Prior knowledge:
- The structure holds 2 protein chains of 2 kinds.
- By secondary structure, chain A is α/β, with parallel strands linked by helices.
- Chain A has one domain (about 55-165, about 205-400).
- Helices cover about 45% and strands about 10% of the residues of chain A.
- Chain A has helices at about 5-30, 55-70, 80-85, 110-120, 160-165, 170-185, 185-195, 215-225, 230-240, 260-270, 285-295, 300-315, 355-365, 385-400, and strands spanning about 70-75, 100, 125-130, 140, 245-250, 275-280, 320, 345-350, 350, 380.
- In chain A, strand 8 and strand 9 (about 350) form a beta hairpin.
- In chain A, helix 9 packs parallel to helix 11 (about 285-295) and helix 10 runs parallel beside helix 12.
- The termini of chain A are far apart.
- The mean pLDDT of chain A is about 90.
- By secondary structure, chain B is an all-alpha fold.
- Chain B folds into 2 domains: about 5-185, no CATH class; about 190-355 and about 360-525, no CATH class.
- Chain B contains 22 helices and 2 strands.
- In chain B, strands 1-2 form a two-stranded parallel sheet.
- The two termini of chain B are about 15 Å apart.
- The interface between A and B is medium-sized, with 31 and 32 residues.
Amino acid sequence: MQGKGVYYHYCISLVLISLCIASITALVNYFVDPYDVYGYERIPGFNSVKPTAIERTRVFKPYQAERIAPKTVIGGNSRPEMGINPHSECWNPSEKPVYNMGIPGASFHLQSLYALHAIHTGGGETIIMGIDFIDFLVDSKQKTATSNKRNLSEDALRLAPEVTDALAFNHFHRRMADRLTTLFSLNTLIDSATTVLLQKASYGATRDTNGFNPYHELNQITESEGQWVLFEQKKLELEAIFNRPNLSIRYSDNTLSNDFEDLRQFLEISASKNISVILFINPYHIDYLKQIVQAKLWSEFEAWKQEILRISDTYQVELWDFNTVDQYSTEPPPPKGKLGEQLQWFAEPAHYRSELGELMLSSMLSRQCQKFSASQSFGLQLNTKTIDAHLKRLRKAVTTTQ
Amino acid sequence: MLFNSYEFIFVFLPATLIGYFVTAKINRESAIVWLVLASLFFYSWWNPIYLILIISSMIINFGLGKILINASAHKHRYIWLIAGICFNLGLLGYFKYANFFIDNVNHVFDADLYLGEIVLPLAISFFTFQQITYLVDAYRGITEEYQFTHYALFVTFFPQLIAGPIVHHKEMLPQFIHRASFKPYITHFSIGLTIFAIGLFKKTVLADGMAQYATPVFDAAENGQILTFFEAWGGALAYTFQLYFDFSGYSDMAIGIARLFGIKLPINFHSPYKATSIVEFWRRWHITLSRFLRDYLYIPLGGSRQGKILRYRNLIITMLLGGLWHGAGWTFVIWGGLHGTYLVINHMWSHFTSQWQISEKFIAATKLSSWGLTFCAVVVGWVFFRANTFEAALNILQGMSGFNGIAIPSAVASLIANHMGSIWVVLESAGLTTFIGGGRQFVFTWSWIVVLFPIILCLPNTQQIMSRIEPAINLYSANEQTELSPCSKLLRKLYWKPSLLWATFTAISCTCGILAMTRVSEFLYFQF
């Protein structure tokens, strides 16, 4: 056994080296800022592309929005996140800056809280909110929730307390945890290294500083495997979702799913804060619409639209429906093995490209702003007088289109 | 409170250590009381209500132990022993197995009995076994205890309270009351911190890193998804590594923490995946449980004293009950039965081949094939151990056997086709197909497996690295013939010493372990 002095040196070295490693880790994570939490400068070739941020949108977007302080916010899930571009030429100067607060995979409740947070941080005036049928579906055998008051998720705690009614302490605690866990984290360090290494990769996944998903991956996939893969994969995913038993917009006691109440509350809060809201139903490729039919959910889909219109009418909010059967939604996907070819309007059945988003903005903002020449206007503003005819037309078109 | 949590590492552990050595300056008993109180606080962190259970259990067992010790000449004292064992097993049976029993009764008799939800108290399987060993040892006159606080510390000592190692009263009490345990020694701190750091790294970096690739495969199997060869093997191997690094990491951390207090715990693992037979595997996996099952179940059943047939019967019974101990479910029973069968076959084979002389040039090949067979048998066992249903386990095994085809993700296939076209042509003509999606999962799963295989096969284990300074008690001395250890010479270069190099290595392990705690997860063995 060696003398005690050797052991003292050992322990002191261990502590000092540990502190050094932790400090270096924090510095690297801060400067690379792989999730864009700190807003440290994006340096081309070093950290401008953020490939690992894509799985942490709920963490970084509230902070990113605060830095942008938007006048206009795009809300919703992953579809508007990659479909509606804040850089679009459609926006008037008075509407800028625009921030895209689309949160992939989130419930409508969370989507709406995130959108309200973003508009709150910039004192903005307009939210353009995408809504999705899938987000409103529940198990019809489930009993209605006794209260529509939702428990705040951990994610929501980092949002402005004015939006969430969270306790200031919980908000502070969540934000401190975000800062510490993104600085002193091995995962973040690995993501920092990945970020630096993937700067040169062509078509790297990333999120822009304004929250937009440019979906560069589409180019990579179409070149390596072909776009048909994305269509095939989404088809399987949708089958799994739509094959869940008892899908409905209503609970067993015939009350509407909680998400409708979340929508109502979102519009109520927006009205009380003089925030102008435009609601829109995301466009789907014909393959998606046909899968709804195959799953025998079409009547539910129509009932959903009727209910959304009823609520939006109560608050005198515009509601746009971009479910169409036309040259945009019926582009046939490239066949298996065909590499390098892409559809003009859709990345896959559930996600439209920003080119289509331009047409949507053109309709919703009543401006001719798209770069692409469209032979006809896209989408339809719904109202109680036209909805039945519109739904009938759409139903017929979907069922008769091959 | 988890060992891999900020509150444990930065608040509870330092505060308990300081409190222990400060109270030890007053007297020995106050330090022991402090440690008992700290341990009960540690236990109550999950659910304070179960403090009532553990404290009452300790009081009753201590009382029974005292009766057994005081009535050493009484001819009917075995009644007290039976009463004590029944009490402990009754408690365990109610909390752990009552609903399982009711479910089976309902199933067989088409009944509709309902007991309500019974929450399994944390660590009940471990502290029940530990107290049974105490009663049996007291009955046998091997140990005795007259101070309740000492007994309470034996049961609740927080490093080993939740998931072992399962300790014996006679190996712990002398250490608890030894004078040297009450002074802080820099040697203990150096050794304890090193072992703790290695364990933390195993848990938070390796086990938790691997977990994210095991869980989706078992979930998919449970949902009836068809799994192809590489997917099924990827999930099974991921869990095989996860479980080992999780539990051996926990055991290392427990041994390291105890050493900070000057206490040596028994070792629990000795590179089990290097074993070249199932018998050897069980000498190296969860060693303190194997010891318990051997001493308190297998030997009392008759062990190997009554001939081969009864020996095999005893082995099967022991392993079936060992399986059931891990959880109230038929998959655990099957896992136990499977290992019992493995052991019987292993013993029969050893008997059958005992006269064989293997030529020198075939020894390496024999060892490699023995290892391969043992490892595969263990992986198959883990599939039952992890799967929530029998059907899910069969689904994975069907995939592993190749009946669902051999396929890789189309993204990986296109990468191979684009860069190594001729290789892809060969693979495709050999029957390799593709499936859509899951490319990232596939690549990461197999990357982890490729990294972890050399670690479990080539690197020495914690006890071997620390063997020169006696890191624990009951160290296992391995026979080279019983393990596949392709880099055994590496050990000579990796013996721990208090050097700058080792301080750097330990600091890296410790810091990586702590920095990986941003996703906190429980230890797998907490559920047992």
